[in-house]
Design brief:
The chain is an alpha/beta fold and about 220 residues long. It has helices spanning about 10-20, 30-45, 85-90, 140-150, 170-175, 205-210, and strands spanning about 1-5, 50-60, 60-70, 75-80, 95-105, 115-120, 130-135, 135, 160-165, 185-190, 195, 200. The protein has one domain (about 1-210): 3-Layer(aba) Sandwich (Rossmann fold), CATH 3.40.50. Strands 1, 4, 5, 6, 7, 8, 9 and 10 form an eight-stranded mixed β-sheet that branches. The longest helix has 20 residues, at about 30-45.
């Protein structure tokens, strides 16, 4: 199942517009906060798909019957670009466990590249709800490799993959390499073009650099 939040007008579209804007991008704190806001929106939408249970809560005036999440998810992100989005999701899933995956591109002289997974920190995922986030779904390779690396910690009951921007190629790669039964994909917006260097166009640039500064 694929959910594209910008298909309906909402604050999601406003925040994505600001993330894309080269002038607003100069304010690094604003960029991170907009990414965090989108994480909060994704968390709210994902919560609608989760299992709730009824509980009694004692108020100053009596007992209230309330619905609460039955089992808290595990929120995972791909370092470093995924951190602001991760923070937004955990602002709402504030009792969630957390996972972190380090993935980076190894570029070749011919213009191609490989993805290397170098580090993984995670609780057990067996029968848990996993929310895996990365702001950009370009080729989809990093997301698939990160997901498969996380499977070392157990098979989740269901996985929600979250990206602010996705390319059509990236979505197709996810669909062809991961089980549709086990995965729900959430994206803010979809862009048509992917360059030869695998950058989304018009996209928004390098989300990691815009959040935290350039790297050598």
């Amino acid at each position: 199942m694929i959910n594209i939040l910008s298909k309906e007008n909402s604050l999601c579209s406003q925040f994505i517009a600001e993330l894309r804007d080269v002038t607003i991008q100069q304010d690094r704190m604003r960029f991170r906060r907009n990414m965090e806001r989108l994480g909060e929106i994704f968390a709210y939408e994902i919560s609608k798909k989760m299992v709730f249970e009824n509980r009694e809560v004692t108020t100053p005036l009596g007992i209230a019957q309330v619905a609460v999440i039955e089992n808290q998810p595990v929120v995972a992100s791909i370092l470093r670009a995924g951190l602001p989005l991760h923070n937004g999701i955990t602002n709402y899933f504030d009792k969630a466990d957390n996972s972190f995956v380090s993935a980076y591109r190894i570029h070749h002289k011919d213009g191609g590249f490989d993805i290397k997974i170098e580090y993984l920190s995670s609780p057990t995922l067996t029968n848990r709800i996993l929310i895996l986030c990365d702001p950009m779904l370009a080729t989809g390779t990093s997301m698939v490799l990160a997901y498969k690396a996380l499977l070392e910690k157990g098979k989740p009951a269901h996985t929600h993959i979250v990206s602010t921007l996705a390319s059509k190629d990236g979505i197709n790669y996810i669909k062809s390499h991961l089980s549709a039964h086990d995965i729900t994909l959430w994206v803010g917006a979809v862009d048509e073009e992917l360059t030869a260097q695998s950058f989304i166009v018009p996209g928004l640039g390098d989300a990691g650099d815009l959040s935290f500064g350039g790297k050598n």
